[in-house]
Fold this sequence. Notes:
Low-confidence stretches: 1-7, 310-318
Helix content: 25-40%
Number of helices: 13
Number of strands: 4
Strand content: under 5%
Radius of gyration: 19 Å
Shape: globular
Amino acid sequence: MxxxxxxxxxxxxxxxxxxxxxxxxxxxxxxxxxxxNEAKGxxxxxxxxxxxDCFVKGCDASILLDGDSSEKNATANLSVSGYDVxxxxxxxxxxxxxxVVSCADIIAMAARDAVQLSGGERYEVxxxxxxxxxxxxxxVNLPSPRFSVSQSADAxxxxxxxxxxxxxxxxxxTIGFTHCSFIKDRLYNFGGSRKADPTMDxxxxxxxxxxxxxxxxxxxxxxxxxxxxxxxxxxSSFYNQTKKHRGILGIDQALALDPLTSNIVANLTTGSNFxxxxxxxxxxxxxxxxxxxxxxxxxxxCRVVKNKPSSSSFGLxx
Length: 318
């Protein structure tokens, strides 16, 4: 099912007049703003949370559900954070209008607010999603940061997202972080060569080896935008860095080099309105395989289904 096919089930301003006199989007923004002012790192965390939710069974807040075998316990999701922000916003919204606002919509709104607070262009979020009742770690099959461009393109295409929107969405790394464990192969043993990835600027590789020693068990954080003056600024600097062979993840660097995407990246480094286009791509991402109308439910607490089933098939074991 493509994102375009799902658009009709969502609409801008879905909650207008449905939460008594409360401004639903304003409540979510107030929570995200306060947390952003405390620690700017919450912004990339919320964008990543949205991506990881939507890429697995659609944007249904399934990543929020607790349980030993739930999505949040899949290996790819162990470093995902921001759950407490969604919990806080949900609590305020339940107090304002019980059983009205879905956790899935809160994730989408919080990601948009994170972009805006980081200096990106505000975009209109379509709402009307409902929450899923299934969350299984075995369903998590996210595109790997070690994928080639064509492999990543296939993964996005399966979600109804095209090549240009894939490049835009990966541009969210302009305020993102990764960890040493995801890049050590590029620093020490690329392709089994016992050498660094030849597509990485040698001076950058040298710097990163100081942060990520080969034998260290520590898993330090590394900024995905190596223009360190804009680590927390939502801009096109990320693409400029990849053009200089300073991409951190393998897929990020490949975007600038692969013939499939190199022209898109070049366009994004030359004054093209990245932040506005990113918002449009996020709207498409937020439309992937959504539940609406009578599908799913509106959870009271984002971490548990409203009527918890006795069957373990829902991945809610604890």
